[in-house]
Write a sequence for this structure.
């Protein structure tokens, strides 16, 4: 290993013949191959960093201590909790680690704290983006369970079990009819190889738009950050209000509509639900209303 090597240079990322761009003269094809490798490296790097936080002694002790403090709020014995610590804790939760004890402890402790806060006072404005991130993250984990995905199907370099060109899981086939309508695969999900995290979004047209964009150099890291609000400059882009598999409970934020509006083309179910939840808060519609000639989506 070179002394100048970095994690992204040396992490175990499988490379196939399809990933070799030597001899590829088309600049567009070269960009697509490079983008696919970048997406794979991002997931591997992200899990590596989170694993370091979860397994490292100092970071692990800090997270464990904070979880205990949050759990103590159930009896009103907790101390002062800093919003920055809550944000750091939520940022360590990784949906690719399906059965992680850290994920389970962090989400459980955060929920206890959130319930205590809501029962005693209106939530602080600074807390709302973190609470939104929690609901989005928890929704993904719920849909992992609904779809029956295992850790082996959610690792960094996993392919969706819906991909006919990938490692089709024969055990998944009988489950398709029992899946909620909004989580059943589209034709593009079956034909375009992709990571299964996209399958967790109960919005078929939105999933298709993401798949097309990923096949044309969409920055997957930026998209994930826009969804969950992992950057300080923007709040979470998705708000989940009810059952995670029900598209009528999902809302897009104004920030996401500004930064990724081109991904929302023809997402009428998402338009409807977003405008519905905004109307409940007395806010004006954010997205176009469904034309009368557009068939109702699931």
């Amino acid at each position: 290993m070179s002394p100048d090597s970095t994690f992204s240079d040396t992490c175990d990322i499988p490379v196939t013949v399809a990933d070799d761009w030597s001899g590829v003269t088309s600049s567009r094809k070269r960009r697509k191959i490079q983008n696919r490798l970048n997406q794979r490296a991002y997931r591997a790097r992200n899990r590596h960093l989170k694993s370091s936080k979860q397994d490292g002694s100092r970071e692990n002790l800090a997270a464990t201590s904070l979880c205990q403090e949050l759990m103590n709020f159930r009896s009103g014995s907790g101390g002062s909790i800093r919003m920055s610590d809550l944000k750091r804790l939520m940022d360590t939760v990784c949906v690719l680690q399906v059965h992680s004890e850290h994920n389970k402890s962090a989400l459980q402790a955060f929920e206890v704290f959130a319930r205590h806060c809501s029962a005693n006072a209106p939530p602080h404005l600074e807390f709302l983006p973190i609470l939104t991130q929690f609901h989005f993250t928890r929704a993904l984990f719920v849909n992992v369970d609904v779809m029956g995905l295992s850790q082996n199907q959610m690792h960094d370099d996993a392919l969706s079990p819906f991909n006919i060109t990938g490692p089709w899981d024969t055990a998944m086939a009988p489950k398709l009819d029992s899946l909620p309508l909004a989580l059943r695969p589209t034709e593009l999900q079956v034909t375009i190889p992709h990571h299964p995290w996209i399958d967790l979004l109960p919005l078929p047209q939105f999933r298709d738009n993401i798949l097309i964009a990923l096949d044309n150099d969409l920055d997957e890291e930026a998209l994930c950050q826009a969804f969950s609000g992992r950057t300080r400059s923007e709040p979470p882009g998705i708000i989940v209000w009810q059952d995670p598999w029900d598209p009528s409970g999902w809302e897009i934020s104004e920030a996401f509509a500004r930064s990724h509006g081109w991904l929302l083309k023809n997402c009428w179910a998402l338009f409807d639900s977003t405008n519905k939840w905004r109307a409940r808060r007395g806010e004006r519609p954010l997205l176009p209303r469904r034309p009368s000639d557009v068939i109702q989506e699931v």
About this structure: Strands lie at 238-240, 250-252.
